[in-house]
Specification:
about 75% helix; mainly alpha; Arc Repressor Mutant, subunit A; Tetracycline Repressor, domain 2; about 200 residues
Length: about 200
């Protein structure tokens, strides 16, 4: 067991071990026994906290959802103008891609592995991107209202859906190519969305 886990509770050890495995290997390739071994907990202890693999994965996705939303909104809120705030969601992806070593989005990577469309894991993926969509929609409306002469020709709903497509595509391709150019192209594409 890694030294950083020694002083943690069994539940915390599991929650600190599972994310890297799920993120690197995916949902199907990550086995419960591997999590148990790397977390240094007994099988009975694991199942007392997480009765199923889905329960563990859902806890992981919920945590990542909240954490990533905070990171993005903190970045956006550090911007001073409606225009830079609007671009902030996409602009935050460059540092994120480098920090995550181009592993891509865990929701894009893992959720399609779950065949049951009514699964809570899939619903968490929807919640993640619905949250991004709502934030972008709010920022789009803020941008349009900030200067009706410059941005009044834009429709907030259309702008949001186009932005979401560029955002998700840039994230996915950066993971495929292990390079930043898709995110840079996505940034340029989002900037073009607001041009007359």
């Amino acid at each position: 067991m890694p030294a950083k886990l020694e002083n943690e509770s069994p539940r915390d050890r599991i929650l600190m071990t599972a994310p890297d495995l799920f993120y690197r290997q995916g949902y199907r390739a990550t086995g419960i026994n591997e999590v148990i071994e790397k977390a240094g907990v007994a099988k009975a202890t694991f199942y007392a906290h997480f009765p199923t693999k889905d329960d563990l994965c859902l806890a992981y996705l919920k945590h990542r959802n909240a954490q990533e939303y905070k990171e993005i909104t903190d970045f956006v809120n550090s911007k001073r103008t409606p225009r830079t705030r609007f671009f902030g969601v996409m602009d935050s992806m460059e540092a994120w891609a480098v920090r995550t070593k181009f592993r891509g989005c865990q929701f894009i990577n893992m959720v399609p592995e779950v065949p049951d469309h009514s699964s809570e894991l899939r619903r968490e993926g929807h919640l993640h991107y619905d949250g991004a969509r709502a934030l972008i929609r709010k920022l789009a409306q803020e941008l349009i209202e900030s200067d009706p002469h410059e941005y009044g020709h834009l429709d907030a709903n259309t702008l949001t859906e186009d932005y979401m497509t560029h955002l998700a595509g840039a994230i996915a391709l950066a993971g495929v190519y292990n390079e930043l150019w898709p995110i840079k192209n996505g940034m340029s594409a989002v900037r073009r969305l607001v041009e007359k």
